[in-house]
Amino acid sequence: MRNGATYLTECGLRPSVQRLAIYNYMVTHPTHPTADEIFEALRDSIPTLSKTTVYNTLKLFVAHGVIDEVFIDRTSERFDGNTLLHAHFLCNCCGAIIDTPIENPERVNDSLPHGASLNKTQLLYFGTCEKCLNQPNNN
Amino acid sequence: MRNGATYLTECGLRPSVQRLAIYNYMVTHPTHPTADEIFEALRDSIPTLSKTTVYNTLKLFVAHGVIDEVFIDRTSERFDGNTLLHAHFLCNCCGAIIDTPIENPERVNDSLPHGASLNKTQLLYFGTCEKCLNQPNNN
DNA sequence: TATAAAATTGTAACTATTACAAATTTATTT
DNA sequence: AAATAAATTTGTAATAGTTACAATTTTATA
Fold it and tell me: Which one, out of A6, A103, B94, B124, has a CA that is 20 to 30 A from the CA of B138?
């Protein structure tokens, strides 16, 4: 596992206590957490932590390519410590966001508009996950 | 072009003046408008129109499959009168949302999680459109 | 025509996010 | 080491999109 402080420094960001905690939370929780979830998770270990800091830091991380934002949930911003290309599946039943590898990554950007330059691709699926399908109550 | 009133009726929705106006706006404006844009565009012809009605109607349309919601813009809900599978490109420069055909539609759902059932797919691109690339000021 | 159901409306509330200025921490210079 | 400057964090208040809700209006049914 990559050293967080070193990595933030490499990305041009000073590895403050808050930034490091947020970064470490992201890489150890591949659950696409919201700012509020991160804030609640870290406030015990950093009692002075402000929610504004969490928002600012996440935005800063996205701007520096440290993390990604996933647009799969309109109710809250969701962040992803894994910046490598992969697809996301949102289960409409349990709300889980599941990562999946993209089967044909060399083809996923074939549908760009003519002449456009590309910064980011998101392949999003919405449906019901296997677990929920096997729980008869939920259907 | 499909008759709006007939289509709404087929979808189990009463074709009120408001619903018909919103539906007609959607099919004649493939710009992925927000609720507010639709409200502003229709308030002249329907002076009593309420923004709540626009929101409610759009949500109702989505629930009945009359239109889709596109998750490409986190600042506002964006709606799409074209419910056939296609990709979306958001230009970070001018804000335009461009439709593109999906080149290999038979492969776009290959990356589903194991055992999951699929309701909807969204293939989103973010970048700079050809027009903005050709305007040196913006780069 | 009377009654019931559906749809619309306006206001107020809600929630996620951002703006901003003050306070704190960290780095740099003297 | 002390003083100064820069960067970061913090808390509060504001913003904006969306929703809840109850009242009103419209449409359908009896």
Answer: B124
